[in-house]
Amino acid sequence: MTWDWNAVSDFMPYFWHGLLVTLQVVALGSLLSFSLGLVWALLMRVPSRWVRWPVGVVTEFVRDTPLLVQLFFLFYVLPEWGVTFSALTTGVVAIGLHYSTYTMQVYRAGIEAVPVGQWEAATALSLPRRRTWTAVILPQALRRVIPALGNYVISMLKDTPMLMVITVLEMLGRARLFSQASFQFTEPLTVIGVAFIVLSYLASLLLRALERRLVR
To answer: Mind listing the UniProt keywords for this protein, alphabetically (predicted)?
Structure first.
């Protein structure tokens, strides 16, 4: 086996296109999972069981089924019912929905970690419920959950190759396409392997910096 730098050079245009798609999926999927996870967590604290029970069933079902199965269902089954999305949109929705059930538990732990005295102080000051959440509880809870949320960003990044099964050409999809055309597998797969390591490391550095800033 010999290393061919010309193959690397030929692969790079494919790589940049795949990298752009990967970053789009991670950014939009993270935004969806963080937002929806917070909604799930807040709904699970609603006193009515008619709200908590359906939310619990849905989130438990999503968390207990593989992401790959969800991708196939959203992309191949929903169109039979008249619901059709592009491959990229389907991938973002699937990843965001799947990981929202995990971020929900992270938010729940962060909210429960806020000292009881903070709730009592807000009540003593007669703060409205909405103000209590936005000014007192959530700012403290979010500072506690940043490291865990950061881990899920990296997990989402590493799960993006699954989108290849629904024709999304992210980094691995582009590498596979190039390899099938050129019969050179070592160079493109090595490039995307290094890219995943670099992206994961940079994401961890950014999240650590954000964590330090929020702590201050």
So the answer is: Amino-acid transport, Cell membrane, Membrane, Transmembrane, Transmembrane helix, Transport
